[in-house]
Amino acid sequence: MSTKMKAAQISTAGGDWELVEREIPEPGPGQVRVKVEACGICHSDALVKEGLWPGLQYPRVPGHEVAGRIDSIGDNITAWTKGQRVGVGWHGGHCFVCEQCRRGDFAMCVNRKVTGIDFDGGYATHLIVPPETLAAIPDDLPAEEAGPFMCAGVTVFNALRNSGARAGEVVAVHGIGGLGHLGVQYARRLGFNTVAINRGDDKEALARQLGAHHYIDATAQDVVAELQKRGGARVILATAPNAQAISALVDGLAPSGKLLVPAAPAEPLTINVFSLIMKRSSVAGWYSGTARDSQDTLEFSSLTGVHPMIEKYPLGRVAEAYEQMHSGKVRFRVVLTMGD
Ligand SMILES: [Zn+2]
Ligand SMILES: [Zn+2]
User: Fold this and answer.
1) Whether the predicted model's global pTM rises above the 0.70 cut
2) 87 CA distance to ligand 1 middle (Å)
3) Is the dihedral of CA 223, 227, 228, 230 positive or negative?
4) What's the CA-to-centroid distance between 172 and ligand 2, angstroms?
5) What digits encode the pLDDT tens for the residues 16-49?
6) Which ligand is nearest to the CA of 45?
7) Gap between the Cα atoms of 114 and 101, Å rounded
8) pLDDT digit string (tens) for 165-195?
9) Most buried by CB count within 10 Å: which residue of 108, 112, 184, 214?
10) Minimum-distance ligand to the CA of 156?
């Protein structure tokens, strides 16, 4: 059996992809090694590629939408077994001792780690992780579908299920892309009156197929008026990172409505605060989730038939795959596959 692993790394901020061979690392005490089968490419992998994460150490292997199998276990691991199918997402571990961890809010740990940023991630055949990053993958979920659930999926599912919206209420998903095409599926299956908002009508049929009850074409219709026709949205999940478009959405909220923003636009929002006050509405960010949240996402997706739409590329074509993801032409997630 080969002792070498393959990885796609970035050696310097803004540098090109390098395909490298390394010794397969052994997991230390309290660590698990995962043999990767698939890893989704996320827009935030640009943080590594372009050097936008303060203090990031190079070379670095990005990738936090990992699906594979545990192939080696270090000492002091009790809850996981070799051969088990697991996912690893954005949440790369927590310290268990800070004030947030003591309160059980591990996602807000002040010493939290991010997979593929603080340590090497899943653009590789193997990676080493702490066990609190692991989510068990249901048997019927293929690795290439499980991968995108580990960041894109958990982010929108966890945002929606914690949003306070109740079954039957209007929930709008703004943007039908990598996050949004999953957001529409989750909103529908969580029992919401689901509105999809996108520019143009070319994604209307798809949005309806994914589960949207209603579709608003932002280029042809007045988005705020259309939402207010339905009483306003209890929640708007803004997945298209366009500051101007997101800012305009607050007027489409219902009383006590919430504009949830899980992906940061480059520019600051310009919000009509009077509108917020008069409707007691709010704008909030959303931060991913823990590994157990990711496992909930995998299980819910398996149970209710949520599927990411993906294009697959072998690891050796990482540069092309990454370009495709960032071209905006992809429908809707690119997944790297590792083969054998
Ligand atoms: Zn991500
Ligand atoms: Zn902590």
Assistant:
1) yes
2) 13
3) positive
4) 34
5) 999 999 999 999 999 999 999 999 999 999 999 9
6) 1
7) 16
8) 999 999 999 999 999 999 999 999 999 999 9
9) 184
10) 1
